[in-house]
Amino acid sequence: MPIRPILRALRHHRFTTALIVLEIALACAVLCNASFIVAGKLSLMHIRSGIDEPALAVVTLDNFERQRADDLNARVVNGLRKIDGMQSVDLVSGLPFLGAGGESVSPDREGKRGSYLTSFYFGDPGALPALGIALTAGRLPRDSDVVPDDATIVQSVITRSLADRLWPHANPLGKVLWCCHGTGGFQVIGVARELIQAMPRDDISVGNAIFTPQRSGPMLAGQYLLRADPARVNEVLRKARAAMATLAPDATVDDEHTGTLGDLRHRYFRSDQATADMLMGTMVALLAITALGIVGLTGYWVQQRRKQIGIRRAVGATRRDILRHFQIENFLIVGMGIALGVLLTYAFDVALMKFYELPHLPPAYLLVGAIVLWLLGQLAVLGPALRAAAVPPVVATRSV
């Protein structure tokens, strides 16, 4: 079918055509960028933590005297280990989705060879096996690895991701990494296959983590890692919370930082889930409005051109010819909208990169967005186009 007559017809409806083109352009920009943001958030929410989440819970205490931390830890740990179904209880400071100290680390003391943001986890030597961490090299911490709090170099287990960044293509075991401008060193005794940062926010440094064994004391107190059979972990956690009134009457349970690891993951990502839901709702609403706009415009044009359609039917045009005319017309309008939408999409992308530090939008999202809008346009125009194709030739003769 010739394109020129269709373009000539569109020029007679410049204003309405321009409105639909702008609407499609805006829909394209919002759809592509919002889809990219939603995909990133959903991917992050389902990230592998590297620990045995179904079998783990944590109890966090607050408002206790740090000077009496050893006494508190002894009472709580010994009491919790007696709970039916409890497999292990260990002291920890920081967990994935719960929070931990963060610092940039470097393979050299002066930091001249680059630095990498890293989460620091501390706990007693039994905490790492309780987490279910698998090693790819080296060994797990032992009681003999625990050193005084003021030690310059401590024994640590780091993640494979961090090791590859610090010493690519080299064996990290025995090497020392540095933080705090060279004032603290961590000698590598083991390499964990996987352990994410305490507060994952991007894919760049999410796998950078260090675990260091530490002794009970003011710096390691009030947070207890519980391990139980996954089928009983909620039951064990309820018993542990109830036992706190007897085991630690001098402290209070921090509800926000107490729960199963599944609870902690849900709480940590609830704002991301809310944002993803809002953006998906916005995309659905915008696509619906765009489709309604196309239906309304095409229906109006069909009504305005009934005589023209009747004449074409009278001189031999088939229903398929009329249907194809409106489909091609819609395809061209949506194409113009997508062309303008590409420019808007990259303008939005630049703004998001500048103000929200989001990564660059991959071109694949533009291709998918264009396909979705073209399909939506064809579906939206189908009803009015079928009505146009059904206009009988007699319509032309009635107005003669």
UniProtKB/TrEMBL annotation:
The protein's UniProt keywords, in alphabetical order, are:
Cell membrane, Membrane, Transmembrane, Transmembrane helix
Output the Gene Ontology cellular-component terms: plasma membrane
Instruction: Identify the Pfam families for this entry.
Output: FtsX (PF02687)
Q: Any stretches that span the bilayer, and where are they?
A: 20-39, 278-302, 330-352, 364-382
**A single GO molecular function, which one?**
transmembrane transporter activity
Tell me what topology the record assigns in the membrane: Multi-pass membrane protein
Question: What is the recorded name of this protein?
Answer: Putative ABC transport system permease protein
